[in-house]
Each structure stands twice: as structure tokens, then as C-alpha cells.
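Researcher: Batch entry, complex prediction.
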Amino acid sequence: MRKKRLAATVIMYTVLGFLAVLWLYPIGVAIVKSFAVGGWGNYASVLNHDQFNYWAAIGNSFLLAGGTTIVIVVISCLAAYAFSRMKFFGQKFFYRALLICLAIPVASVVTPLFSTINGLGLRDTYIGVIIPLVAFNVVVMLMLMKSHFDGIPQELVEAATIDGTSAFGIFWRIFLPLSGPAIATISVLSFVYSWNEYLLPNLLISSPEMYPVTQAVSLLQFERMSQEQIGQLYAGLVLMTIPSVLVYLFSQRYLQSGITAGAVK
Amino acid sequence: MRSFTGRWTPYLYIAPIVIIAGGLLYYSIGFAVYASMTDWNGLTKMDFIGLDNYVRMFQDRTFYIALRNTVIFMVFTVLLQAILGLLVAVIAKERLPGSNIFKAIFFLPIAMAPAIIATVFKYMFEANYGSLNETLRALGLLGANDNIQWLGADLGIWSIVVIGIFSWMGFSMMVYFAGLMSIPDELYEAAELDGAGWWRRLFSITIPSLRGTTSVLITLGIVGSLKTFDIVWLTTMGGPGVSTNLLSTFLYQERQGREAGYSSAIGIVILVTAFVLALVQMRLSNREK
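Model: C-alpha cells for the complex:
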């Protein structure tokens, strides 16, 4: 029995190890290549590049992801509260109509989206990207918040109603204070999803100085690339991944719980 | 209940989300339906031409290539990453020392921007100086002067499937892991007493208990495949020629070619496919319950 257990352990480690090598290979390639030819000099060159401004790209991504996150948290909490604790005509209709939006691929509506944002005079502005980023990401967060609010005991609401607390007072003084971890989860998810978005900024932002990191990748690529330029590209990619990795490390718990909850609910 | 809110109060709470998400998305869909029946060039010219764009699409060779690639991507990415995710989750549940490190490795791509992952893979797959061919040459698996065109017309879509699996597997692993945690231990103990081996337990307890999880992952995978854009656009741009186009990149190429009406029609096809497949998948899994 012990021998069998040992054999099983060896097999399991072999499978995990093999897969880990495959998964670490691209990441390893990027790191090793980022030192190719120029060594640390690649990093210095990327940070002092003519076309590519690392800090601007990071700053732009922060603005887009941060702005989107704030709007999403505010509007999804408000709506989740109404869908969870109020009764009103058309409630089911509105909720279903919003849930259907989950299945809309961004690509399928890029053409009308571009003219709409352009028509509003918001092309090449941060607001013009934040609005669709919110639209495409907010519904999952609404679902997560609603299912969290659904779990708050109704007795708390009734007690507060008897005390004469208004609907907004109940939201503000009971629901929000009980929702710290849930709000943290939807904030992290909104931030990561918006940070990672490529198609929307690519569609709506044309000035290179406004590029977020996902778009700025193109500023380090040229028609024919020398080994030196490839080294610099990889250095840029590694540098641009650092913020994602930091967010991942500091919010792993919320990210994982949010992602699994989103799938299970 | 009704007493604690005014009649119009609830609508104030849902107004922002309904206007921003519902308004923008439904308006865009309506606009796309109309635009798909015009010869719009994205600027001013916009004459009604009925279903001509759809007729044209069903006669367009590129459409069928993009459709075929989307199906390949959907089937193989969804299937393989789910199988690998399940495998890793089942092993991780055994709580071997260090299994958290492995979980963190596989989950890392979830936090990375697909645009960055795609760019790393693009240069890794490059035929002449790319790291993958270099590694294969160093291992003696590839002749010193030989190349494998990983992003060529033949292998391209399969390399993109690999990028998809790399990006998504950690997600399935996490979701399966959460699902595994909710299977009662008694089931396994009872099976062990009956003398059921590891494989037997996997196929008669674990996989059936995870049916709900699997069906959610498939639905998300189907929609996710139709949403996939960046990992193709930033590696091959649909090329060489049109060989690695997905429907999404095919649409984008047409849009850039001032074919706004035609690209809207492609968008409607993507949209309808997403709705229909998601609906069918949900119906099927509901019936099983």
C-alpha cells in the first residue's frame, strides 16, 4: 500500500512538473531574452525610448482601469441593492436584459460602438474608453454584488425600517459596511479586466501618448527587428507585466474567489 | 416591503447601469442590425441594400476560413484546457507539499494581459530566430537549418489554440478546484471501502459530481472563444493571407477596409452564434438536472 502511494506521488509530481515546465517556458523565454545582447542595458533603453514611454503607458492603464473600477463599483452596488431588496415593475425584465449582455462579444459591435463614441465626441479620450469598458464588465459585477446582498439577513432591514431609516440609509449604513470583501473582489476583477483589455483602446484611442500598456506593446515592434530591438521588446514586456504581477500577488485571494464565484453563480 | 421605498426610487438605483450598459450595448446591437443591411463605409454613405451583405458573406471564402478556425479554436481550446485544468485540480486536491506553488504558476496567466502573452508567443513562435525552434534545435529535435513555421498557414491556428490553452487553463483549474472541495469526503470513503481504484473513483464520483461546473466552463468557453481577438490580432493579424482569421479578426479587417456595413453583418453573425450556443448549452445542462 505504501509503495503504491509512493508511485502515485511520483506520477503526480511528474505530471505537475511537466506542465509547470510548459507554462514557465514562455515566461522564462521572455525573461532570459530581455537580457539578450544588451543585458540590463535593454531595460535602460526601454525606459529612455524615443517612441515608447513606459511610465506614460502605465499611467494611462491606471487611469483607464482605475476610472472603470470606480464607476463599476458605484453603479453595480446601487443596482444590486435595488434588484436584491426592492420590488418594482419590470424588475425581472431589467435584470434578464442586463444578464443577456454577458454574452455579447466586444468584437461583434465594434463598428457601431466606434461611431457612437465618435458621435459623442469622445474618440481619443479616456472617458470614451471607460464608458464601453464599464458597459462590457459591469454586469458580472452586478451578479456578484446581488448574490452577496441576497445573503444579508432581512431582519436587519426590517429593524432599520422600523427605526425610520430610509432606503438609502439602509444601503449606506447596513449593506455597504457588510460588503467589504465583496467590494474588494469586484474592484480587483474590474481593475484586472480593464487593465488587460486591448480591443476597446485599440478601437478608440489613436494618439500614441494615450496608449495603455496593451496598446503600447506595438510601439516597441518594427517591420524588421534587430536582436537588440527584440531584447528591448522583451524588457518592455517584462516591465509592463510587473504591475499585473503586483496586483496578482496582493489580491490573489480576492481575484481567485471572485473568478470562481463568477463562474459558479 | 413596498412601504420602505417610493414608487420611483428603485428606478433611480438601476438607472445608471441600465443607461450605461443596457443603453450602450442594446443601442449598438440595434445599430449593427441596421448597418448590416446597408453599404455603409463608416463615414457618410449608408444606403439600404437589404440582405446583400449576408449573401456576400455566405459566398466569401474568408468567412468560411474564419468560421472553421473559430470552431477549431472553440472545440480544442475549451476541451483541452478543461481536461488539463481538471487534471491539475484533482492532483492539487491531494495536498502534496508544494501544490500551491504549482497552482500559482498555472493561475499567473489569468492576471497577465492577453496582449502581452500574445506578443511573447509571437516572438517565441517566430520561425528563424524564435526561441521555440532554437530550443528544439538545441535539443536535437530539429535540424540546424530547419524551421517550423509555427505561425504559418498550416500550423497557425493550432499555435493560437496553444496560446488559448496557456491563458485559460488556470481558470478552469481554479473553478474545478472549488468544485472538488464541495464533493463530500464520505463518497470517496465509501467507494474506497468497496475497493474502487483511483480511476474508478475519478470516473464514477469526481467527474459526475462536477457536471455542473463543467457545463458552466463550457458555456463560458464558447462565449470566450467568440470574444477572442487579441491573441490572434497581435500574433498573426489573421495571416499569412487570411489563414488564421477568427470571425472577430475577419470582422476587424473588413472594418479597417472601410466595409462598415459588411463588418456589421459579420458582427451580427457572431452575436447570434454566441446567443444560440450559450442558450443551447444552458438548455442541455438544465435538462440533465
